[in-house]
Structure formats: structure tokens, C-alpha cells
Design brief:
The structure is a homodimer. Chain A is of the alpha/beta class. The first copy, chain A, contains 16 helices and 13 strands. In chain A, strand 4 (about 230) and strand 5 form a beta hairpin. In chain A, helix 2 (about 40-60) packs antiparallel against helix 4 (about 95-110) and helix 7 (about 185-200) crosses helix 8 (about 210-220). The interface between A and B is large, with 180 and 179 residues.
Chain lengths: ~500, ~500
């Protein structure tokens, strides 16, 4: 097979049908080789594996035979690597099969795989197979969402899907609209950008619990750094918010913090914003998809009072990255993104009926991420997705109870979504550094990937380091996490001993 | 099969091995159904097809049987659609197979497929099968590039790949570095952002030939609108540039314009920038990968004098979107992107040896697009990629000759890369509106997707509308485009007649 076979057009599906099984077999082999949630040995071991693999690929290059179906000629292949390009960019190819086989196995063996329940550090979900399969078709046909003549039906599908998302966020609004983004970070940036376009003096205001992307967006957009409102229990204090608001404020509230999954009191915050004529954006990247669950959606009461909302289906939604969404209560606000480029949306083309897509994003070329999101929702239904969200939240509640009952662990608080925050009891004696070491020891051993969060111990209390489990695996039960809890406690004990024996290790 | 099966972890490859063939069969059926580069009938027909498909999917929902393997129970399935969610977000799923089958066929039938040679409007390439296959593994394992513990080997692979790209752009620099972006638009934004961080008074300056993303980035970053330098033959006039430069200027030159593929005179521009202590960013999103071709790379002489470079492998590089890159001559410049987030790159984790990835992007969660780019380069080698670039450029030169020889067509100028700009001769008589109508007529008929470009007729001349063919299909020869040229001329003739018969149609 030629290394340069195309994925689309006539015959594309056949070529993919030959190559994808090669990649999947290599992936399965790599997962088996890893045998846990993450490769053992930490960064040094992973870097060494890459160097070894480079050697193997080099040997394939030097060998001959039918596996070498690359575009280079035999003469070129015989030449040694030379010129300005590094080993990472070899001049001579090894062919599609060999490259896929080696590098797919390497990627699988060296990944932190959220498909393993012990990989539970971040808002980093295990993707659904249906979404990954749908993405193959999107990749192969490569619709680019910046003009209709690059994405005829993909743009229609996106329009319908985003209309559905807008309606989900704003059931009673007159003209809600939504666009696709690269994730919560870009969605939060859009929230501030739209505010800036309505008011050049916009002043961001957010809780101490807000995602770092809020401050970063302010920096990027040339806005002043956010005014930070204090929190209690990782939740914005509405009274403190009221104290700082002006009509220039654009408030960013959080519906599911990255640290603990806590939701800000949206109805109260929205009331305060209205009273002060301040704009409100809600970062619901984590919690937003709870709207799909009849039993959980009340947590998001008040969401539709916001001017805009960030959602992210690579969290609850089980999409591969990227799967960001941004909803606005008033479609007119998105007019701020309008831009003209003669080759993409000339006036006469738009008048002739060709939809203008360029104003749907701050990007130009854009992958049709809405396609796999739409296929997923059609496959499972919003009820099906809501059931998966519920499952994760229920599991978190049960795991939290186990933590509370565990003699070696302390629970930070009851989970509101699917994040369980905990700390080894022995850390009360030794301090935060032990907590950080437990996390790194588990990661280095390849037995678990867990997260960390700095959180105040109580009202006005000083910040302490906690461990966190962000439970996004939709098929586990609490019992699957019991061995992990025991391992955290045992590792804390072992690190305590190690720390006493060799203080240098700290 | 359960609709909510995972793509990663144990068993993930097996589930994908069941679902992907369903998607590929549907894709092949959709391509056959389309039978051309783009669906006929324009936006109205495509929208109607989507509505019809919605009906079919609805019938699947209403029916029963093993195809309905969705997460919803039979009871729920019996309930009519209700509640605030629109038809685009059905409450009840139809199962993974049915959703994939229907929507993949729909996407393929309704796409503008760059795998068809007659789809040649934009910098919208037909992706290589090897890249699409590699992306399956990346999607399934879902590494997120914002922290090492979400992307152990993926981050190493990216580091090596971007180091290779940086070295390719800057063979002699001391500390070149590169990062992955969502495309040329984000790369151009980074070029201006890094300039702003070194000098808050940064004033963008670009040619009239620059991509619209330059002005958009200035707007987004809160910088003044670019000073626009006149062009001749779609090429920036160095003398005019020298007239406007100040030490606050950040110049954006273009190595391969979107309209014509023309390259700005980089060595001269770089000299002028140095003399004026102005910063220089080169938008080489289109032309940059010519560095892989020994015979074409001299076109990019002077590139390494730039402070930063935008590349995009979804053009020459044959990657699905997104595949943007940004190279900086001095790694220290990228320090502007540094950001701290306790949960992702705490100081003590970084000191303990966990690589800090957060400062490699303005995004947070990030797909490992470098993986499929790296697999592609290992499969074909840079020589293999360079050969494909040469092929496209050679074909363009030959097609341009055919245009020049064609009695019904006029050639704008000799192609520098792979873009052929032309105009029906009869348009001299009728004006630009006929040109726009020819493009739309071919699109509506489903026979060809060609682009448009407004370009001055000569030095100081007024702007006229041209048609363009952007040739990115790496397996075609000039002869494949002869029927398309005839069709353009014939359609112009037909539109001329139609315009005369019914002046209302204009």
C-alpha cells in the first residue's frame, strides 16, 4: 500500500479499512504492555522508551522489503540521515504500516489512559467508542467549518446541534445561540470578549475558585486582571460579590469548579448582577451537562439568567478533546465575531444564499467537532448521557462515604458533582509536602493517576494541599475505587517513613 | 453492543473494531451517492436532506429490535420527544450503530470532498489515510496536552516533533522552539501576542495581501488595527514597507498568500525590519512545508530571519484540520505563554521533574495533533512530503499553461505555489458579477468547487474578481483539470446568455 494514500474520495474508505486495524492492533498491544493506568517510571522512563522506539524505527528505515512502502526511492533510502532536519523529522519514511504500528503501540503503552478507572486525576474523560468512530469520517472528509463550500452538510449539522445546545441552556430565551469552541478555555475567552465588545471598559470579576483560563483570557484580550471575590467551601460568596460590582463588571461564576466540582449559587449571583447591571458569564464546563439529567439539572437553576455559558463535552459528554461549546442568551451578542474575508464570505455570495460561517468562531479553518457530538447524542440520547452523568455523581458520593469511613483518610466535603477531595490523615502531622509526594509516588509507580488541589481548611483558614479523584469513568462502581483508597493511605504511610529515614528525599 | 462502550482501556480496540467498519461502510455509501465533489442543489437541498435524515432516524427511534442498543430503557423509548430539548438533541438514543450509519452516510453524501480533484477552491486538503488512522488512537486514548500526567508519551512525542519543526524553520538559530496551534489563525495571533508581550506599544503592519486573521488577531489582542502596506502582483512592496516602519512595528509578511500563493520578498523585508529594529512574523501557513522539498525550499530563503513563523500542515502536509504550528527563533519568546495553575503545574511538581506543559499553548486541554503529524512524517519522510508538495506545484504550473492557452480563459499570472488564478474572457465584457455566478453555478450543479479572489488588475489598477483553483490533491496531473477548465469557460458562456435573457437573474 502506498504511504500517501488518501482517506477521502473514491477508495478512501478502503484504505482506511486497511490501515485502521493496524493502528488498533498496535493500540491494544500497547495497552496490554502498559498493564495499568499509566506507564511506570515517570518522565525519564517515558523519554527513554521514545528513544528506544526511534532506534527501532531507524532499523526499519535501514532494512528493505515490502513493509517499506514509503514515498522515497530505494536510492534515497540508502542515504544516511542528513541535512538540517532532526531525527524527529526523518528525511526517509518507513511506510504507513510501520509508522502506525510503532508509534500507536508507543502512544498506547505510554499514555495515562482514562479508560482505566485508576486514571482519575483530571477532567479528562474516557471517550465513547461511538464518538471516536464518528470522528474518523470527519477526519477523512475533512470539512472545514469556515465556509459552506468546504462543509455543506457539516455546517448544517453544526447549526442544528448548536441550536439544540443553546435551547438546552436557555429553555425560555427568545434568541439563544451557541457556537463550537476548542474547550472551556476558549469559551471563557468568548464570554469576556463579547462583554468587551459591548463595553470597552469591561472589568472581569470572578471567584477565587474560578479556572485559571479566566485570568488568562483577560490578559489575552487586553482587559484588566480579574477582581477576585473570596469563596467559602470553594463557592463564591455572594455578599462579597455584591461589594465589588459596578455596571462595568463582567462576572464569571463557576458551575462545577475544577478543584472540587462545587457550584456557585447561580440564582443569587444572577440577581446581584442584574441589580448592578453587570454582565454574567457562567463557566459550566464541568457541570453543564448535568442539564441532561432530570434529577441533577436543578443544580443548574439560574443558569439561564446568565448572558453566556461555557460548556465542555470532553468532560461529562465523553468526547475526545476538543469538544467545547459556548452559548449566548442573545444571538445578537455573537455578532461581535462577525468578520469579512472576500474568499470565504463575500457579500454577493451571502446574498445568493451561501451561509456565512466565518462569524461562528475566532478560528478560521475548524474541524467539525459538532459531528461526533451530534452522533453521540443521537446514539445515546440526552437521557442516556444524563444517566452516565448521574452514575459518575452517585459513584463519587459513595466513594466519599468510603473516604469518610477510612481510618487513614480525611474527606474534604461531600461531592456536588463527581470529584472526591481527600487527604491522608498522617499529612496533618507532616504537612503538604507529603500529600504532593503521595501523588507523585503513585504516578511514578504506574498504579494511579490522581489529582491535587490547594484549598482553604475552613472560613478564613489557610490553604492546604489535598488529593482529588475526578470520577469520569461512566462504568465503574464505588467498589472499584476501594483498593485505590487503601493504596493512597498505605503510600502516605510509606512516604512518611521514607521521609523520616532520608530527609534529603523531601 | 452498548451505545456507551468506551474507546480506550481494556476492550476499547475491540469496540472500535466493531464500530469503525460501520462508519466506513456508511462513508463509502455516502461518497458513492454523492458521485461528485459536492452535493448538487446548494444549501436548500442539503438542508432538506438533513431534515429527511432526521425523519429516518426518528423512525429508528420509534421502531424496536436489536439495532436499538441505546442507553435508554424500553419505557423511555416509548415516550414521545418532550421537554425543552430540540429534535437536534433527542432524549432517546437510537444506538451507536444506527447513529453512525445514518449520520456518516449523510456527512459523506453532503460533503465537499477534497479527495475529489474537482474540489479545489480552498487551502482545504484531502487528508492522508495514515494520518486519519493515527488520529483514531489519539482520540481513543485522549491524551490532553495540558499536563504530563494526562499525556506522558504524547507530550514527549510533541516535544520532539516541535523541536524538529523549529529546526526546520531555523537551521542555524541557537534556541529555536515551536508549539502546536489550531491553525494559521492561532499561529498569527501568537506572532502578534509575543510581540505585544515584548512591547505593549506593538503596532501590527502587514501587506494588503495578508490573511484576514492578522487584523482579527490585532482586534482580539487589543492592539491597533494593522497598518496596511500596498502590494503589486499580490506581493508586498518593500519600499512601501520601509516608509511606514518604526521600532514599534511588528511586520507580518506572507509566504504563500491565500489568494494566489505568492510569496513576499522575505530577505528584503527581513533586512528592512532589522534596519528599523522592527519585529518580523512570517505567515508561512501555505508555503512553509516547501521547506521539505530540496527544489522548492529556496523560495523560503530569508524565513529564518523572522522572529516567528506560522505553519499549517492541514494545507501542504495533508493533515485533517487542525494541524497548526508556530515556530519562534528564540525559545525565550515563548516564555510569554507561561502560566501557573496549581492543579496542572505546581512548582513542587515541576521541581520534582514533571514537565510543565501549560505554557505551550493558549489553550488548556489540547488534543495531541502532533501525534498524527509525527506518524505522517515517519511514514513518508520529509522527502516524501516534499515530493507531494512538488507534485502539486508542478501540476499548477501545467494547469496555468493550459489556462493561458485556453481561448475562453485568461490567466492572472504564473503560479508560485499551487494556486492557479483565472477568469473567463467573457467577463471582460460583463464584469465581476458573472465571475461570481460561474463559481456559484458550478457549486450548485455539484460539478466543481472553485474559489474566488479579488485582485488588482495591475499596478495601481482597480480590483477585479477572479476564480482560483487551489491544487492540493497530491495524486492528480494537469490533464485531470482540463475538463474543469472547459466547464468553467462553458459555464461562463451559459451564464452570459442567461444574464442577457433575464437581467433580473443578476
Amino acid at each position: 500500500m502506498r504511504a500517501d494514500g488518501l482517506a477521502g474520495g473514491e477508495g478512501g474508505a478502503d484504505r482506511l479499512g486497511e490501515l485502521i486495524p493496524v493502528a488498533l492492533r498496535a493500540m491494544a498491544a500497547g495497552i496490554a504492555e502498559r498493564g495499568g493506568p499509566v506507564p511506570a517510571g515517570g518522565p525519564a522512563a517515558v523519554a527513554a522508551a521514545l528513544v528506544a522506539e526511534r532506534g527501532e524505527l531507524g532499523q526499519v528505515t535501514a532494512a528493505s522489503g515490502p513493509i517499506l512502502a514509503g514515498a522515497a526511492t530505494a536510492d534515497e533510502r540508502a542515504k544516511p540521515e542528513a541535512g538540517p532536519l532532526s531525527a524527529a523529522l526523518p528525511r526517509t519514511g518507513v511506510g504507513a504500516e510501520a509508522a502506525l504500528e510503532h508509534l500507536s503501540r508507543l502512544l498506547a503503552a505510554g499514555s495515562a489512559d482514562p479508560g482505566d478507572p485508576s486514571c482519575a486525576a483530571h477532567l479528562h474523560c474516557p471517550p465513547l467508542a461511538v464518538s471516536v468512530a464518528a470522528d474518523v469520517v470527519a477526519s477523512a472528509l475533512n470539512p472545514s467549518m469556515d465556509s459552506w463550500d468546504q462543509a455543506p452538510v457539516a455546517s448544517e449539522l453544526e447549526r442544528e446541534f448548536t441550536a439544540g445546545i443553546a435551547r438546552m441552556c436557555y429553555p425560555h430565551a427568545e434568541t439563544p445561540d451557541a457556537v463550537v469552541t476548542t474547550g472551556g478555555t476558549e469559551s471563557n475567552l468568548l464570554g469576556l470578549l463579547l462583554a468587551r465588545e459591548r463595553n470597552p471598559r469591561a472589568q472581569p470579576v470572578c471567584g477565587a475558585n474560578a479556572h485559571h483560563s479566566v485570568a488568562r483570557a483577560a490578559w489575552l484580550l487586553g482587559l484588566p486582571a480579574p477582581v477576585v471575590v473570596p469563596c467559602e467551601g470553594d463557592r463564591m460568596l455572594p455578599g462579597a460579590l455584591a461589594d465589588v460590582l459596578t455596571p462595568d463588571s463582567v462576572v464569571v461564576a463557576t458551575a462545577g469548579t475544577t478543584n472540587t466540582g462545587t457550584l456557585d449559587p447561580l440564582p443569587e449571583i444572577a440577581r446581584i448582577c442584574r441589580r448592578n447591571h453587570a454582565r454574567l458569564h457562567v463557566d459550566a464546563a464541568y457541570g453543564g451537562m448535568a442539564l441532561c439529567s432530570p434529577s441533577l439539572k436543578t443544580k443548574l437553576d439560574g443558569l439561564e439568567l446568565a448572558d453566556s455559558v461555557a460548556l465542555d463535552l470532553h468532560k461529562f459528554g465523553w468526547q475526545p478533546v476538543a469538544a467545547g461549546l459556548f452559548a449566548a442568551r442573545e444571538a445578537a451578542d455573537l455578532g461581535a465575531l462577525t468578520v469579512r474575508a472576500e474568499y470565504l464570505n463575500a457579500d454577493d455570495d451571502t446574498e445568493a444564499g451561501l451561509p456565512d460561517l466565518l462569524g461562528r468562531s475566532i478560528r478560521t479553518s475548524r474541524r467539525p467537532d459538532a459531528f461526533r457530538m451530534a452522533v453521540t447524542v443521537h446514539a445515546l440520547g440526552t437521557d442516556g448521557l444524563g444517566a452516565l452523568v448521574e452514575r459518575c455523581c452517585t459513584t463519587a458520593t459513595e466513594v466519599a462515604r468510603m473516604v469518610d469511613d477510612h481510618p487513614g483518610l480525611r474527606l474534604w466535603g461531600a461531592p456536588e458533582l463527581s470529584t472526591v477531595v481527600l487527604r491522608p490523615v498522617v499529612a496533618d502531622e507532616t504537612g503538604d509536602e507529603l500529600v504532593a509526594r503521595v501523588r507523585r509516588a503513585l504516578l511514578e509507580a504506574g498504579t494511579a493517576v490522581i489529582g491535587r488541589a490547594a484549598l482553604p481548611t475552613g472560613p478564613g483558614g489557610e490553604s492546604r494541599l489535598w488529593l482529588k479523584l475526578t470520577l469520569l469513568h461512566p462504568h465503574t462502581t464505588a467498589e472499584d475505587y476501594r483498593p485505590l483508597l487503601d493504596r493512597i493511605a498505605a503510600t502516605a504511610g510509606a512516604e512518611l517513613v521514607a521521609g523520616r529515614e532520608s530527609p534529603v528525599a523531601s
